[in-house]
Structures are given as structure tokens and as C-alpha cells.
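User: Could you go from structure to sequence for me? I need the amino acid at each position, not a summary. C-alpha cells:
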């Protein structure tokens, strides 16, 4: 998805979470923060006022990888009264995310779980997620590469980069809290983000593209969808 060490196109004013532990050999198969991560942080910072007004108490990130995005959200919202949950198919990513949160916000209540697309948690979290974050595996790849439990799970998106996204989209209304539960999701131009927005609207959500930019060879954007 990214060449590690490439330039980061980031306009944030708030500090990026510390993640020094990711340089350990143990976490070589954990996707490090790159341009898509930093775009996500930038958009969340732009959304800070909206997020604080909605006051989400249950915040979940699917596929947190390094945990940088969920940890940044905790920095925007604060640790008190909130649950921050990261769910990743890669067990080392779940572990790394826990360490990232602990290194930056030790008072935060965090749960970091190994699971595939919230499969074992859907009944527990049904219509209970106030803020849902997802930087999906969006890179177009052969279908055979989808579903890995290693670092490939961070980018292998199958045909048009949509195979994981298309499984995820119908779950969104089931997961978000009615009356304002919000999804923020990264998409690539090749994923046809306008079509994703139309799908989310067809599911009854208020969806739009918030912000996008070129990042190296990729054109990325972040979508927002809000439950009625």
C-alpha cells in the first residue's frame, strides 16, 4: 500500500501518537502509519468539533493496525467515560494497538481483540457503536490474497479493492447507534467512493465524501456516514 518512510502529506496541528514500539522486529508484520493513516488523522481533527458535540462513548476501529488512528481519536475526545475498542484479524496488530494506546493515553479504557469483521461481537455491539473507524484493505489484488491473518490483511482488497468493503457495508446500520452513530472510512479512487456513498445512502444513512487528496500514486478520501 505504501513504501515505508515515504513523505507524509499531513496538515494536522495536534501531535501524532507515539508508536516507537512498532520499530521492534516483533511488529514487522504490523502495517505502520503511512499516508492513508495521516489523511485519516487529518480528517478526524477537522471533525473534532462535530465529534465533541456528538460525544461518542463507544468508539471502535476495525483493522487498527498500529492503533494510531484510534489513539488519536482518544486524544481528541479524552479518556473519561469512553470505551475504545480495536478489532484486528492480525493478533500482532491487536497487540501493537494496545501498546500504542497505553503509551499515549494510559488512563483510556481500551479493548483490543482478535476477530474478523466483528464476527464474534456483532450481537454485543448491535446498534451500540457511536463512532466507527475503518481504514479497509482497499488495494485491488487477486481475490486469493484476501483474508490473510498477516500484514497482507492491511491492504489486500480483492477485485477493485472492494471485496472486504462490500462485506462490511451492509453491517454498518446494524452496528451504529441510532440517532447519530457515525462511520468514518478511507477509500481509494479505484474503489469507486461515489458508489460506496450511494450504497450507504441506500441503507438509510446520511453519507458523503468529506475530504480527499493525492498521496503518492494513490488518490484517497475519507467518507462519513451517520445513522438516522
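Assistant: Here is the amino acid at each position, in order:
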Amino acid at each position: 500500500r505504501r513504501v515505508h518512510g515515504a513523505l507524509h502529506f499531513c496538515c494536522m496541528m495536534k501531535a501524532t501518537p507515539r508508536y516507537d514500539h512498532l520499530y521492534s522486529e516483533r511488529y514487522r508484520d504490523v502495517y505502520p502509519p503511512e499516508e492513508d493513516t495521516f489523511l485519516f488523522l487529518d480528517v478526524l481533527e477537522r471533525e473534532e468539533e462535530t465529534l465533541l458535540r456528538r460525544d461518542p462513548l463507544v468508539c471502535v476501529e476495525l483493522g487498527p493496525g498500529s492503533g494510531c488512528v484510534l489513539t488519536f481519536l482518544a486524544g481528541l475526545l479524552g479518556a473519561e467515560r469512553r470505551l475504545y475498542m480495536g478489532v484486528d484479524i492480525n493478533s500482532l496488530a491487536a497487540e501493537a494497538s494496545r501498546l500504542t494506546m497505553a503509551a499515549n493515553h494510559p488512563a483510556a479504557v481500551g479493548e483490543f481483540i482478535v476477530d474478523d469483521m466483528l464476527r464474534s461481537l456483532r450481537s454485543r455491539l448491535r446498534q451500540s457503536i457511536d463512532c466507527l473507524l475503518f481504514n479497509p484493505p482497499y488495494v485491488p489484488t487477486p481475490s486469493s490474497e484476501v483474508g490473510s491473518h498477516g500484514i497482507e490483511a492491511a491492504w489486500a482488497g480483492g477485485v477493485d479493492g472492494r471485496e472486504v468493503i462490500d462485506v462490511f457495508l451492509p453491517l454498518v446500520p446494524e452496528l451504529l447507534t441510532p440517532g447519530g452513530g457515525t462511520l468514518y472510512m478511507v477509500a481509494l479512487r479505484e474503489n469507486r467512493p461515489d458508489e460506496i456513498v450511494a450504497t450507504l445512502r441506500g441503507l438509510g444513512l446520511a453519507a458523503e465524501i468529506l475530504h480527499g487528496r493525492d498521496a503518492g500514486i494513490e488518490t484517497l478520501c475519507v467518507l462519513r456516514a451517520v445513522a438516522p
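One structural detail worth keeping in mind: Confidence is low (pLDDT under 50) at residues 1-10.
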